[in-house]
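Why do we care about 3D structure at all? Because function follows from shape, and shape follows, mostly, from sequence. That is the central idea of this module. The next example makes it concrete: a single protein chain, its amino acid sequence, and then its structure expressed as tokens.
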Amino acid sequence: GHAATHRLHAALRGVLGTPVRQAASVVSSERLRFDFTQFSQVDLDTLNRIEALVNDRICDNIAVAIKEMSADEAFKSGAMALFEEKYGDVVRVISLDTFSKELCGGTHTDLTGNIGLFKIISEAGIAAGVRRIEAVTGLAAVEYMHGLETTISQASALLKSEPSALVEKVEQSVLKTKALEKELRQLQDKVASAQGSNLSEQVKSINGVNVLIVNLGEADPKSLRGLVDDLKNKIGSVAMLLAASANGKVSLIAGVTKDLVGKVKAGELVNVAAAEVGGKGGGRPDMAQAGGDQPENLPAALKSVVDWVQGQTA
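And the structure:
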């Protein structure tokens, strides 16, 4: 509670080596939230040192001294005022040996050992120049540690690893996943390239303009841009719209060779379809992309593109 907060404040001052002004605190018997002035993140090693320092004082089982005195006497003795508020003539000073002496009106334990265990669970910035530490104490800290042990045990079981080798196993898994993702992208590019050869045979002439409008199903959206470039090179003169949909999302890309941008602009072309599938997009006259979240409307969207191209090229 409050006693743990006082030790945390003193530990922060001691470890960070700079004046630490408390901005606010919220305290209960088993947890605390401590806001303080600091312009940079407190790294994990420093947090561990602060936590260890607080737990050392808990193990010392220091008696908490409570004394009322005049405000002038309190400040002259070196007591710190934790809150930006006005104090009366008589104030309450809480002392923990020579480790901490602060003004506080909260309820305190008689001995620091009663707190049992102090565990920092988070540190984050909440405003410019203000950091927040949250911690648990006593049985809440024990329960928190049990939760971490359970999480580590479950993760170790999933990775078929001993807890001591968990980090190494995770690193191996991440590297393997990245390698597989790279291999998948390469395969998808090959599939897209093969599709390009077949797609070039599906070109139709609308009012003398080569037009290609295709739904590629669950094709990788990232491969569409390269496919558009390939098709432009293969066909030579074309206005095209390629579509793909998966997981409730629609990806659209339009490509127009430079000889046709006077009649059909890619940005307008792609937005005709996007409007039908609940989205919008944009880009250059020769290349534009869009998305949407109504894949059920994709067939109607592609038909509307055909009608629009007919109007543009008439």
